[in-house]
Design a protein that fits this description.
The structure holds 2 protein chains of 2 kinds. By secondary structure, chain A is an all-alpha fold. Chain A has one domain. Chain A is 49% helix and 0% strand. Chain A is built from 7 helices and no strands. The longest helix of chain A is centred in the middle third of the chain and has 19 residues. By secondary structure, chain B is of the alpha/beta class. In chain B, strands 1, 2, 5, 6, 7, 8 and 16 form a 7-stranded mixed sheet that branches. Chain B has a 6-stranded antiparallel sheet with strand order 4-10-11-12-9-15, with helices on one face. In chain B, strands 3-14-13 form a 3-stranded mixed sheet. The longest helix of chain B is centred in the last third of the chain and has 20 residues. The two termini of chain B are 31 Å apart. The chains are: A mainly alpha, B alpha/beta. At the A-B interface, helix 4, helix 5 and helix 7 of A face helix 2, helix 6, strand 4, helix 10 and helix 11 of B.
């Protein structure tokens, strides 16, 4: 019988523990760069808004990770250290590239569009419009040799 | 009650339609345009949201088969090496195009005479030159005069910024002694005609929230409406009708409520792009035209041309912010545009240098390739690549071949029950050799620019933006569908003005040439009004 879903994320308790450990493992925090871990962000809220069709595949990814941890290491994925968790993920993906694929894709989507992350990368938070971006006009003196080519078209 | 007859009925509200309607409006004739899609609202475009990088993936996908709006029609692409990109709405393909706006060159109109391939056009570059200039003013085009790869012209607005990334790439081209130039762009670099200038938002090809990209719903249609052109949206044409004298009488269409209507017209102009136009002609069968309207030559739907397209991505050191700026336009090289007998292919290609990858796509592809690890090392690797990517697009000239076709799918239909198009297309050996050369050239240029990593993506299937050749123009009715000013050889009050009538494909984005040709045809219609049907 399937485990009871315990939150509005649509995940069971085990799946929620697996998710938190998995997210902190695949994108760990980096205090020096001001980068949060993926687990600090609201992945399931992001999925609910932008990729609800991915929820079933994410559940399946989490269940597969839990099964693998139990089989290979004899403990729950949610009980793994960050080092053991990422080792398990990377070794599994080396032989099965689609392992946790949906979860990783959505985690990257959530992470690299988050205002905290974007700001830490040195770019303004929020949407492109209306603030826009500043782009250097370019050095047109570099065209000097091209101007000297003369006409290069036929006709 | 008098019958409702339009003087001119235009099917489709994209690039060519907008230009022709503008030109014809000064005749004061009654012009009606039927468009199957909606008006777009720039406030809905993804760049209004911080999650723009995912929001553009489905609703603003270039593929109608992914987008699946109720205003789209499906396309069977199972037998095609290239999948079709389009948009159905006011503005047509310009809603999602990048605004890269280089003109065809003089040699593009004379490939048979110069190189023994394809066919010569019945018009040449210099016939179209004043119409290119007029269209640049109408659209709002930015660029830099003096490019030695094209006859001299002066874009009305200063060029779009090429950025630090553009500088780096330019130095690479200079090392090799190759041509490069800031691209002409249908994007306004300064405030123009009541429109705000480009803010370098980035994702032009999911719609411009600022309205700085010159899609024709912004640049032409509001003016056209003020000039009296009647534009009806959500009107999907099923068939062009004809009488016993081989004259078009109007169009049967489904209105916004799905109710079948008939619009009578004295003149019908087709502007539905290189797939939509042959589809509609082939769907318009009658006793007089059992094989499709205006198809006595048998060439409707044949000679489909795309631009075979490849991608090479490079990463250059220097924190170049290469992902910022109008995505599809920075600079181009036309070093390999013209035929060189020493190469193993005829005709040539453009290297279109576009902005690099935004953070999310960079992360997804970097992780997939293994360049950016998961776990420790992720952040360091990500920063190595962020802002340092640049994309070379290899836009190859296609040549007309009758085996590349748009036909009607026997089973697939749109939501109105109208038979959908089927694409049959393969790359020629010449195209494959040209593309291989382009990939080597792009790699060489990136290495000359100091790239620390180059990834070649090869030929990309999802690049069918440019739809050409399926109702070609020419003087001989046995070898062409329309004459030298766009009038059907078979139906004297039927005109075609979109990319269907291209004889050859050039090796650049075709929109500016499509619009110049549409203005040229409209001008010829006006000059010949007294004997338009003779």
């Amino acid at each position: 019988m399937a485990e009871r879903i315990v939150s509005d994320s649509g995940l069971s308790e085990t799946q929620s523990r697996t998710l938190r450990v998995m997210l902190d493992a695949i994108i760990p925090a980096d205090a020096g760069r001001g980068m949060p871990s993926a687990g600090e962000l609201d992945l399931m809220g992001y999925v609910a808004e932008f990729a609800p069709e991915a929820l079933d595949a994410i559940r399946a990814d989490l269940d597969a990770a839990e099964d693998l941890a139990q089989k290979r290491l004899g403990i729950a994925f949610g009980g793994l250290s960050a080092d053991d968790a990422i080792d398990l993920v990377n070794t599994s993906r080396a032989t099965e590239p689609r392992f946790a694929q949906t979860l990783i894709t959505q985690a990257l989507g959530c992470y690299y569009q988050d205002d905290r992350v974007v700001t830490a990368l040195g770019y303004p938070a929020g949407p492109p419009f209306p603030q826009g971006n500043t782009v250097e006009k370019g050095d047109l003196s570099l065209l000097e040799p091209v101007r000297k080519m003369g006409k290069i078209y036929r006709g | 009650m008098a019958e409702d007859i339009a003087d001119i009925l235009i099917i489709g509200a994209g690039a060519s339609s907008a230009a022709a309607a503008w030109s014809l409006s000064d005749t004061r004739m009654r012009i009606v345009c039927l468009e199957q899609g909606d008006w777009m609202n720039p406030a809905d475009y993804p760049s209004n949201r911080r999650e723009w990088q995912v929001l553009r993936n489905v609703a603003y996908s270039q593929s109608p088969n992914v987008r699946k709006r109720d205003t789209d029609y499906p396309i069977n692409e199972d037998d095609s090496a290239v999948s079709v990109a389009n948009f159905n709405g006011v503005g047509g393909g310009t809603v999602l195009y990048s605004g890269h706006f280089p003109r065809f060159k003089p040699s593009d109109f004379r490939t048979r005479s110069l190189d023994g391939v394809g066919d010569d056009w019945p018009v040449d570059y210099y016939d179209l030159e004043p119409y290119f200039a007029q269209n640049d003013r109408n659209m709002g085009v930015s660029g830099l005069a003096g490019d030695p790869a094209i006859p001299y012209h002066e874009p009305p607005l200063p060029h779009i910024p090429i950025g630090k990334m553009g500088n780096a790439v330019a130095r690479g081209f200079n090392k090799l002694g190759w041509h490069w130039w800031p691209s002409d762009a249908a994007i306004i670099s300064e405030d123009y005609e009541g429109r705000g200038k480009c803010l370098n938002l980035g994702p032009c090809n999911s719609g411009c929230a600022q309205g700085a990209k010159s899609s024709v719903d912004i640049a032409y249609w509001p003016l056209n409406q003020r000039l009296g052109v009647e534009l009806r949206t959500r009107c999907r044409v099923r068939e062009i009708t004809v009488d016993d004298n081989d004259m078009a009488t109007g169009a049967i269409y489904f209105d916004e409520n799905g109710v079948e209507q008939f619009q009578a017209a004295h003149v019908v102009i087709m502007a539905c792009n290189g797939v939509g136009t042959p589809r509609l002609l082939l769907n318009s069968t009658s006793k007089r035209f059992p094989d499709g309207l205006a198809n006595r030559s048998g060439l409707v739907g044949k000679n489909l041309m795309f631009h075979p397209w490849g991608h090479v991505e490079g990463f250059l050191d220097g924190n170049l912010d290469g992902h910022l700026g109008p995505q599809g336009t920075s600079l181009l090289s036309q070093q390999f545009y013209e035929t060189d007998p020493s190469r193993d292919f005829v005709r040539g290609y453009t290297l279109q240098v576009t902005r690099g990858q935004a953070p999310l796509s960079l992360a997804l592809q970097g992780v997939a390739r293994g360049d950016i690890p998961l776990g420790k090392g992720h952040h360091e690797a990500f920063r190595k690549y962020l802002g340092n990517s640049v994309l070379f697009n290899i836009c190859c000239e296609d040549l007309p071949e009758e085996i590349n076709t748009v036909t009607l799918d026997p089973d697939l239909k749109d939501s109105s029950g109208i038979p959908a198009p089927k694409i049959t297309y393969r790359l020629s050996e010449n195209s494959q050799r040209m593309l291989a050369h382009g990939i080597r050239s792009a790699t060489e240029a990136l290495e000359a620019a100091g790239a620390f990593q180059v990834n070649s993506w090869g030929q990309n299937r999802h690049t069918g933006w440019h739809l050409m050749g399926t109702a070609r123009m020419g003087k001989d009715p046995a070898k062409s569908v329309v004459n030298e000013w766009g009038r059907s050889h078979d139906v004297r009050n039927l005109f075609i003005i979109d990319g269907s009538i291209f004889v050859t494909a050039g090796a650049v984005n075709p929109t500016t040439t499509i619009q110049a040709l549409a203005l040229y045809i409209a001008d010829n219609m006006k000059k010949n009004l007294a004997n338009l049907f003779d």
